[in-house]
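Backbone shape codes:
***
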Amino acid sequence: MSLLLQVENIHSFYGQIHALKGVSLTVNEGEIVTLIGSNGAGKSTTLRTISGMIHPKKGKVIFQGEDISKKDPHEIVQSGMVHVPEGRGIFPTLTVKENLEMGAFTVKDSKLVEERMEYGFSFFPRLKERIDQFGGTLSGGEQQMLAIARGLMLNPRLLMLDEPSMGLAPILVELIFDIIKELNQQGTTILLVEQNALMALSIAHRGYVIQTGEITVTDSAANLRGNKEVQKAYLGIS
């Protein structure tokens, strides 16, 4: 398994607030790696730093062997990394089709855009049924499907998902996680941030626990599920 992403001792700030304090992690090609932790622990900040929305004050982000720590988000996207943010971030006044086309803004081949759209529809047939519907009129679950499908339009080497189950009914949570697992089986490497730690660890290969901006535990997903401290803090098992 080749190393795809390497995060080395990153320190990130929001103004004077030291949000990440030496976070290090790796993602190998073909893996699902999950980052779990409580609210405010630094999960989303880690993804934002990796995708260039925040530049680390210290440390490196290396993707496909290249230091991307100082690159802007649009440059990082073009290198094959896609970040689907918390809150979905779809365009509510654009149709499903237009949202997907926006996801392929760097793709000049119209036939390739159509092929990738159909690929997304193979996972989310409901979106095809709503292709001309405005994004803002979709249900929460459909908006999450659209956010992921839009991310797939660039055929990413690494897909980073931030809280994909947030606000969804349990049956939709299961559907989204089944699709994440299937995407991975078809070759997409995934870095997953998820409040629902039990679901995340059920599909991941490895995991990291982050607390107050620092990685405190790293292990296989199976071992993390069996870790008594992780069970008590994040899995609701006492």
User: Anything to note?
Assistant: Residues 91-155 form one domain. The first strand starts at residue 3 and ends at 14. The two ends are 36 Å apart (CA to CA). The mean pLDDT is 94.
